[in-house]
Amino acid sequence: xxxxxxxxxxxxxxxxxxxxxxxxxxxxxxxxxxxxxxxxxxxxxxxxxxxxxxxxxxxxxxxxxxxxxxxxxxxxxxxxxxxxxxxxxxxxxxxxxxx
Length: 99
Hints:
2 strands, 60% helix
C-alpha cells in the first residue's frame, strides 16, 4: 500500500479520506437532529460528552472513536448497528456524488 493510501477508507473503487468521513458522520447526526431518538443536549449528557463536542462532530470538525460512537448511539436510543448503517448509506451517497 502506498504511503498516501494509508489514511484512506476504500469503498469499492472509491476512497474516502478521514476528513470526508468525519463530515459524513456529522451529516448523519444532523439528519437525526430533532428526531425522537436524537436530542443533542440530552444525547450529549447521556453519552457523557460535552454538547459543544457533539456539535463539533456534527459539523465534521471532530472525529469519534468507536467507543464514542457507541456512547452516542446508546444515548440516542439507537443501536450502534443502526448508526453505522446510516453512516454506510451516507458514505454510499458521498461516493456516488464524487467524481
